[in-house]
Amino acid sequence: MSTSALAAARLILARDLRLALRKRGQFVQPLAFFAIVTTLFPLSISPELARLREIASGVLWVAALLASLLALEFLFRDDAHDGTLEQFALSGQSLTWLVFAKTTAHWLLTGVPLALMAPLAGMALGVPYAALPGIIVPIALGTLVLSLIGAIGAALTLGVRRSGVLLTLLTLPLAMPVLIFGAQATDLAIRGVSFAAPLYLLSAMAVLGVTLAPLAASAAVRISLE
Amino acid sequence: MAWTWFHRLASPPHVYALASRLTPWFAWAAAALIVAGLYGGLVLAPPDYQQGDDFRIIYVHAPSAWMSLMVYVTMAVAAAVGLIWRMKVAHAAAASCAAIGASFTIAALATGSLWGRKMWGTYWEWDPRLVSELILLFLFLGYMALRSAIDDLQRADRASALLAVVGVVNVPIIHYSVLWWNSLHQAPSVMKLGKPEMPAAMLVPLLIMLAAFTLLFVYLLLVRLRGEILRRERTASWIREALADE
User: Fold this and answer.
1) Average pLDDT along chain B
2) What are the chain B neighbours of A174 within 8 Å (beta carbons)?
């Protein structure tokens, strides 16, 4: 009873990470998806690196966006199935903090690996070495915002049949600002220009997302559990 | 009590009767203003010195675009009222807004595309305003999809209400990001209409059309709201009395 909200959140974060390590398959899927999607573009457009470099930022961002959306379905599903989520809601702890912890775990397990893998795909698309930070940092930040926004959609579609397509339909329009500034940051980095401006806007969205999205997501979880 | 009118809005029979009484007034007012606005816009207003008669599509395009956003905000406000005060009628109103808003959005996109055909030579240009309008359409579609995917009415109400509120927080962010996205990629578009320098003969019909579309929206909302209330309260006994009166 005396556990503080922060301590409870930390426990959930640790639990989710440990569970993920035991069920690795689920978290390798988005990475494999990302690798496959980025491979489709050279095959469908042209193997010329000069042309691929032109579209590299768009390819990386759309693939990262879709891959992280793909993983969102898992965010609450298992916990909702076995009743854990209900126990969280009844525990007397702030559900907002618990949802925030789960979202953070989700980002650490999908967003961060995606950000670390994206440079490999980037190099395959002809991105120069100097531009690699311009891939890693914006994708890491952008996937954080995506996880936060997506948590709302994932909570709203809990228990809905064929929720995957619906989740995509709900989340993608809200995610467009992230795509716009993220792809712009990566594009500027590839051109060898400073990408600070779109990165600041992306950080502003991350701050806004961290403060507001968990509130909405926990309200959505409560609605779905009703 | 000053708040009685608000509390009475929570009662479906009261709102149903009120909507039935108000519907013809809004219908006639909207029809009269549409006729006046179209006459002013299509006949009285002078042709534009650059675009000739082509600019006249603005009298449908601008009000539709304006309404699409206004309906979304109305929907979100109704949804928030429903969430906060657990007001069934507010949820019914929010649900009635979605299809109307999506229709206005499609009208704005279609007229914008036709106008673009004359001005830019293509039916679709990645103009920031058209793109925000398209994303708004996706938001309406998402709302409707979520609502239809959940079978339990109460849960559908509350879940879609939360989505509408989240959406309305995002609308300004989406709008400005699309604006900045485009300004860095290409020169501003050719269209510079709608600036204050518009002469009165062109501007007055436009304002009339804006008012007319607002009334049209209220009329459509009242009609749909009555249907929505009938559907939700179909087992209630007051329905039989209300329908016997008509």
Assistant:
1) 86
2) 139, 166-167, 170, 174
